[in-house]
Structures are given as structure tokens and as C-alpha cells.
Model the fold of this input.
Amino acid sequence: MELIIIRGGGDLASGVAACLFRAGYKILITEQGSPASVRRKVSFSEAVYDGQTKVEEISARFAGSPEDIHAVFDRSEIPVIIDPDLEIVKHTPVEFLVDARMMKRKVEYDLGSVLTVIGLGPGFEVGVNCNLAIETNRGPSLGDVIYHGSPLKDTGIPGEIGDRSIERVLRAPSNGRMTHHKNIGDHVNSGELIAEVDGKKVTAPFDGVIRGLIHPDFIVIEGMKIGDVDPRNEVELCFTISDKAIKIGESVLKIVEEKKK
Done:
């Protein structure tokens, strides 16, 4: 079975990886040296920091060499490599490439190769920088496979969870390293201290549970997303792949299986 590469190891990318892995496909995840995933407990990118991680029942492991990649496959795990420039496709047979980095801006791909490029969300246009795209905005078209044109533009507004949207997102108050005072899965009350960046406090915007916090080794930039508070206050949801990620993953699986017929 040929390889499927998923570019990015965040929560949406990991939902796609889980769907494909459960269907029996061979998956490789490429990441940057310091992943910026916020929902780290459902992100295979954590393997870059910790060497190994598990999302639900699926294990992923950091691979630092081609030999390591094969060893991880032999363990029935997902290898995660640092390869921001996608050098691996130059010397490894790959059938599908899923760009799940959610960069929300145009990226370039050579569509003249045998590789099928699947682009997730804004920044992709079928026939220009991907072969097929998938809608990632919440709403009636979430997960739709796009055969012509582009996914909807980024609204800049986080999807509503419970009765909260913009206010559930925690942002860095300054540049620097973040000190955690709480962990993912912890309950917090409105105004409670969650973290600090360069001595500046990040507090809970309302009562809830911490659904995501960026890794403390990542050097944050003022204004960037560094955390997420869930008003539903259900701890298990912090460790569960979201319905959105599963929906998108099922759409990628549909493309792969149709192409294989």
C-alpha cells in the first residue's frame, strides 16, 4: 500500500489521520520543528516534543531518520517527521498529499505529478494549487468535496461552541515564552489565572474547561492563539477528536477510496 502524507499534525490534521489510519491506510505526518498546535491532546504533532503521543487509541511516534520511519510503521503507529519543505516526496513514492496545515493563504504545488493534492480550507483552488479541496468552515457545507473553485474564505471568527465563539479563544498578550498555571482538562472559573506570557496574565474568560493550550516550549507572538476554553465543561471532550475533524476526515477518506477504484 502506497503512502499518504498529511502535512500538519494539529487537531484537524489528526482527525484526518485517524480516519485514514482506521481505514487501514499507511499515514506519514510532516511537521515543523516547533509545532503550534493548541488542542495538543488530540494532535499527533505532540510527538515532535514528547517523542511519542496517543490520540484516542492511535499512537504516533517521532521519526528522525528514514530507518526510524520504517520502524514506526512496523509498530503499527503513525510516524511524525520534521519536514517543513516536504523534502520526503522527492525520494519516497506518495499517492496522496493532504495539506491540513490550515494556513489560510495560497501555497504552491506542482499539479503535473502523479501525486494527488487535497487542500483543506481557505487558500486552495482546484486546478491551481490542489487537485481537490474540502470545505472546513462550520455550516451546512462543512466537509463538502470541492471539484471546482475554492473553499469559503476564512471568516476570522471561531466556530461557536456552546454559546461562545470569539471569547473562548485565548491569545498571547505579548511575545515570549508561556508559563502554564493550568493544564488541558482543568476546570476554571471566570477570571482565574491560566498562564502568563512574559509576566502578563492570561485569565479564563468564563467558567469552563481548558480545551487547548499551546506547548510551553513554543515561543509565542503577541496576538496569536495560545489556548481555548470550552463552556460545555465536559473534560472528556478535551481528549476527543472533534466532530468537525471527523467530518473532514471522512471526506478525505471518500476521495482516497474513490480514486483507488
Notes: The CA atoms of residues 210 and 229 lie 5 Å apart.
